[in-house]
Amino acid sequence: MAKRVIDITRRQFLVGAGGVTVGLPILPSLLTKTAYGADPTYTRSPRLYWLTSEHGGAFESSMFPSPSLLTQSQNLYSDHTVRAGTLVPTTAGSDTVVSPILRANSSVFTPSLVAKMNVLWGLDVPFYIAHNTGLHLGNYARNDGNGDEGKAVQAFPRPTIDQIMAWSPSFYPDLGSVRERSMIFGSRPVSFNYSNPDTKSGSIDNVRGETSSLAVFKSIFVPASGTAMPSRPPIVDHVLESYNRLRNGNSRLSAGDKQRLDDHIARIAELERKLTAGSSASCGNVTQPADDANEHQGNTPADAGKQISLYNQVASVAFMCGTSRIAVVCYPDTARYVSYGGDWHQEVAHQWQNDDPQSKLVASYQSFFETSFLDMAAQLDVEEAPGVTYLDNSLCVWTQESGMETHGSVSIPVVTFGSAAGFLETGLLCDYRRTGNEASQYDPGAGGTQVLGLLYAQWLGTVLQAMRVPPSEFELWGSKGYGYPYLGSVDWGPPFTPHYTSTTSRYFTDASNILPFLAA
Question: Is 510 exposed, middle or buried (0-12, 13-18, 19+ CB in 10 A)?
Fold first, then answer.
């Protein structure tokens, strides 16, 4: 969906189809004679946008670009060569085509956006996780327990990486303008954190998402001017004395109840911080959206795209205003992106290996890419500083629940836009599979042989570091990368064992390394 950029008296206004009008803040670099676009000292804190979709099941030949693009190689290990190459799109009618799924109208999917894109092939979760929403952001415990391996991992929950960032002093060194540390859109449980994130203690709980884009807009919008909020003692001060007396003076209080009290006080303190934040934000003139994602339940393909686009508009407002730098959008399945009236899960996703269901999967993912994921990239691809766009200073990620085999976790597709403020190289197809080694091959029964590669946990570790969160802040359990280190046996026995071998093998111990080819 194209957005208009209008030049009005040296200021920029972005107009979205949902009625959002954003007046960009005054940019100091434009008020001086210094050309900051060419100045290496110009830096910007990166933002993260993550779009998740359930299922998977599209043949790799439909999801990934042609392997003929892989012109570079690197010997990661003596018996494992990884490859990469520049994305070179083709044209089909009015569309730009990177792969059958990564295809969209050329008026939006421009050469500039292709050059800011990455497609990653060969990232695995090495056990049977099946139905889940936790894989995307690193809480593998959030699965439905379909099999012994998923049940075993349920005992080891983790905060998701969006929440690791949200509470990281490296990601948010200054919370002065931040109204929401992270914005979670949708009702599916995809984001998780400690019950007391400030002290990293308590249970690992779902961070509930919001289905109303308008409600999130109201929580993150800070007017450019207005009457200052009167100074008053923090809310938490009113209850602190009673809290201390009860928590520390009552011998009958259990450890669990002390944790509940701590969690409650921490929530009050965070609420107080949100209410007083925003003094350093500069949002310009922002018109409240005229539409709400709640009004669009995805009953038609156009309606489904509209719902996500409204979430995207609010997230882009927050990124531009500086009132939040993290947005996660969880979408159930992509059945709504094509006209289908049956049981998508059983009749399409579970029949992925058959021609007719496969064609429906490919069509749904192509529509999802064009109307929802590419939509966010296009909304952010406007100038933030000379020669640098908001997209350049962001990382937009799309992940699916599984790879080519529905509920299988070989080669989880990862598609991105943006360089995370210069941390990542872009415009690449990266193939991390251990091709040419029979011990790493797997035949799921359709769509061609799959090949094992590197751990998806290494991708999560790469993202954290791209967001400027160092390993010392996420290697909290003595393991590298991110996500519980577990190696299954269901569907991962011979010939797989020679590949990942154990949780102390090279793939696990190297999982905090930046993925090959991506470091700028």
Answer: middle
Residue 142 gets the label, from left (phi > 0), alpha (psi -120 to 50) or beta, of: beta
Position 469, amino acid: V
Closest CA to 150 of 354, 407, 436: 407
Question: Closest Cα to residue 83, out of 432, 427, 426?
Answer: 432
The torsion region of residue 279 among left (phi > 0), alpha (psi -120 to 50) and beta comes to alpha
pLDDT (tens digit per residue) in 164-176: 999 999 999 999 8
Contact present, 426 and 474 (Cβ < 8 Å): no
| Cα(83)–Cα(436) distance, integer angstroms | 12
pLDDT digits (tens, 9 = 90+) for 386-417: 999 999 999 999 999 999 999 999 999 999 99
What is each CA distance from 244 to 248, 274, 354, in whole angstroms? 6, 23, 63
Alpha carbon distance, N-terminus to C-terminus of the chain: 30
Distance CA 454, CA 443 (A): 18
**Phi, psi dihedral angles at 330 (to 5 degrees):** -105, 120
Q: Positive or negative, the Cα torsion across 333, 372, 295, 212?
A: positive
Helix axes 213-220, 301-321, angle to 10 degrees: 10
Q: What is the pTM of this model?
A: 0.86
CA gap 221, 467 in Å, rounded: 23
Closest CA to 325 of 176, 223, 435: 176
Burial bucket for residue 336 (CB in 10 Å: 0-12, 13-18, 19+): buried
Segment (H or E) for 375:
helix 374-380
Distance CA 315, CA 324 (A): 8
Chain CA centroid to CA 467, Å: 12
Rg, C-alpha atoms of the chain: 23
Residue ranges of the chain with per-residue pLDDT less than 70: 1-43, 222-253, 257-285, 492-496
Could you tell me if 308 and 331 are in contact, meaning their C-beta atoms sit under 8 angstroms apart? Answer: yes
User: Structural domain boundaries of the chain?
Assistant: 4-26+46-222+281-509, 231-276
Q: Residue 239 carries which DSSP code? A: H
> Which tokens go with 197?
């994130």
